[in-house]
């Protein structure tokens, strides 16, 4: 009787193992991986995949990338979203993106992440899928991640059963790569720039939509590593320049390309804060990026306008890193590699306090004055470190007018 019971239990286990093996073969993973999975991993990966398919039954849909505001990238994002899930399991797309794709449910569970995450974090696709993303991000970033996955304000009436909200944020994620391959890490965490869309859908009960009630379904995003710790060794191309600054963005060193770009010699800018040479409308973005840099150690800024000595500006994007003192391990300075676009814009506009006034000022028309920030009574707030008044005089053939812009809190 005992022997018979043993044989029955053995057959049940064999049958169970066979069913698990068949289930594993249905997962959209290479056979070399599925054949090595234990039962718990098979269940975890299967439930994650089924959950993702229930949230995104038709892939990301034709509406992917249709944010509440129009963007020139909308068409590209829509096209990408329509075909993304068809290629998620193809190695070429994530490699082309130079990052990793991930899908996170509203509760933080990772429903999908591409295998290329192992290149950036050293963590495998199988290990990450089905687990909470909060287990792999810095504790200080938990609140930020919760906010990303939430509707921070009541959605406007879209008259659509579902839509997407753009998300862009920086996370410190666990990195177990060897030091020579990990890039810049701090305490075992690496800064990852994530950008994507939060999918929002109307509540549905008994096949009836509740028009005023929306719920978040999940986040689809791409994660990118920021430039490595050897940022000072990056080869500078013709559209790049670098600077070194103190922790409050007071410039310490600039390479000679800044003279060609802005008309300022490097020595003209030393000991001056970067904020003084940025367009007033971009101060908020730069200040926010500065805050992220001080908190997380690395940041990629949005494009901002760097003012020229002789009027106008160029669009610049900065990849900034905090360099630590090798002896004390304390933050020492900021090193930034900057990419700029040509040509220069607004050459006939003097927006800098340090502008060298020239003969062309007599030709400045009222139209140019309308383009100046603050002309229509808008007020801007600036970092406390800025306490300066920019006075701009404009002349026409028959009128003279002075305009003062307060650049202080």
Automatic annotation (TrEMBL):
Chain ranges of the BHLH domain: 1-53
GO cellular component terms, A-Z: nucleus
Domain PAS: residue ranges: 95-158, 242-297
SUPFAM superfamilies: HLH, helix-loop-helix DNA-binding domain, PYP-like sensor domain (PAS domain)
GO biological process: cell differentiation; nervous system development
Organism domain of life: Eukaryota
GO MF entries: DNA-binding transcription factor activity, RNA polymerase II-specific; protein dimerization activity; RNA polymerase II transcription regulatory region sequence-specific DNA binding
Location of this chain's protein in the cell: Nucleus
Pfam families per record: bHLH_HIF1A, PAS, PAS_3
Keyword DNA-binding annotated: yes
Main location: nucleus
Protein name per UniProt: SIM bHLH transcription factor 2
Higher taxonomy: Eukaryota, Metazoa, Chordata, Craniata, Vertebrata
């Amino acid at each position: 009787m005992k022997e018979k019971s043993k044989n029955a239990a053995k057959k049940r286990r064999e049958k169970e193992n066979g069913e698990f093996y068949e289930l594993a073969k249905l997962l959209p993973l290479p056979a070399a991986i599925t054949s090595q999975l234990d039962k718990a991993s098979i269940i975890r990966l299967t439930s994650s995949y089924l959950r993702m398919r229930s949230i995104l039954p038709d892939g990301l849909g034709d509406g992917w990338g249709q944010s509440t505001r129009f963007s020139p990238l909308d068409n590209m994002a829509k096209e990408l979203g329509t075909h993304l899930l068809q290629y998620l399991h193809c190695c070429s797309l994530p490699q082309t993106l130079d990052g990793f794709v991930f899908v996170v449910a509203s509760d933080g569970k990772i429903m999908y992440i591409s295998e290329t995450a192992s290149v950036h974090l050293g963590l495998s696709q199988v290990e990450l899928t089905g687990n909470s993303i909060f287990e792999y991000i810095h504790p200080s970033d938990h609140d930020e991640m919760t906010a990303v996955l939430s509707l921070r304000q009541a959605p406007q009436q879209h008259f659509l059963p579902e839509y997407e909200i753009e998300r862009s944020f920086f996370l410190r994620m666990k990195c177990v790569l060897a030091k020579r391959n990990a890039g810049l890490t701090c305490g075992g965490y690496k800064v990852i720039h994530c950008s994507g869309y939060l999918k929002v859908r109307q509540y549905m009960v008994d096949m009836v939509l509740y028009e005023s009630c929306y719920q978040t379904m999940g986040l689809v995003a791409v994660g990118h590593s920021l430039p490595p710790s050897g940022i000072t060794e990056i080869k500078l191309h013709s559209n790049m320049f670098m600077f070194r600054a103190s922790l409050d963005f007071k410039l310490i060193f600039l390479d000679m390309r800044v003279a060609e770009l802005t008309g300022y010699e490097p020595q003209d800018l030393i000991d001056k804060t970067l904020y003084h040479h940025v367009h007033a409308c971009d101060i908020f973005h730069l200040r926010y990026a500065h805050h992220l840099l001080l908190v997380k150690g690395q940041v990629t800024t949005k494009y901002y306008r760097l003012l020229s000595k002789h009027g106008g500006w160029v669009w610049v994007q900065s990849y900034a890193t905090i360099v630590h003192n090798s002896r004390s391990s304390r933050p020492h300075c900021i090193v930034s590699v900057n990419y700029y676009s040509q040509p220069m814009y607004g050459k006939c506009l003097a927006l800098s306090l340090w502008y060298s006034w020239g003969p062309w000022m007599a030709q400045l028309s009222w139209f140019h004055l309308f383009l100046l920030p603050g002309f229509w009574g808008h007020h801007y707030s600036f970092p406390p470190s800025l306490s300066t008044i920019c006075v701009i005089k404009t002349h026409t053939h028959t009128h003279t007018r002075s305009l003062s812009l307060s650049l202080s809190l």
